[in-house]
Design a protein that fits this description.
6 helices; 6% strand; globular
């Protein structure tokens, strides 16, 4: 059970648009983007909220909003196949802009970093949600 004083629990109580699983999934998709798809470039990030303001962020493998949206799409299809859109919808995610809302919520509470050029709008309309998760489904007779 999530400790009610944990920053994620506080976030979930303030912003109820997305389920806890949506936040976990975005973290997993970011790892998938960096480690499996090898997305991202070394880029200095802004310091986390709890870090000293005059201390610059350490170089991170930065994934852009568009790259993360694509990684999320691919990771969701890998994990959930034909049910990917249904699963995401059940967590409150219905468009790519929702990924940006989740990411910027996590940035606000110090669980993710951003570069000075990152914007919430980077996640808007990256792809058509219905088309992106539609897969061709065929039933083939057994020979």
């Amino acid at each position: 059970m999530l400790d009610p004083s944990h920053s994620i629990a506080e976030l979930l109580s303030r912003d109820q648009r997305y389920k806890f699983d949506a936040y976990v999934f975005v973290f997993e998709a970011l790892s998938f983007a960096q480690n499996v798809l090898e997305m991202g470039r070394e880029s200095p990030s802004e310091p986390l909220a709890q870090e000293e303001e005059d201390e610059p962020g350490q170089p991170q493998r930065h994934v852009t909003g568009q790259e993360l949206c694509e990684a999320i799409r691919r990771y969701a299809l890998q994990q959930y196949g034909y049910m990917a859109k249904t699963v995401l919808n059940s967590w409150g995610i219905r468009r790519t802009g929702d990924f940006g809302e989740i990411v910027f919520n996590l940035i606000r509470i110090g669980h993710m970093r951003k570069t000075p050029s990152d914007r919430r709008e980077d996640f808007e309309n990256v792809y058509d949600f219905d088309a992106a998760f539609q897969q061709e489904f065929r039933i083939r007779p057994v020979d």
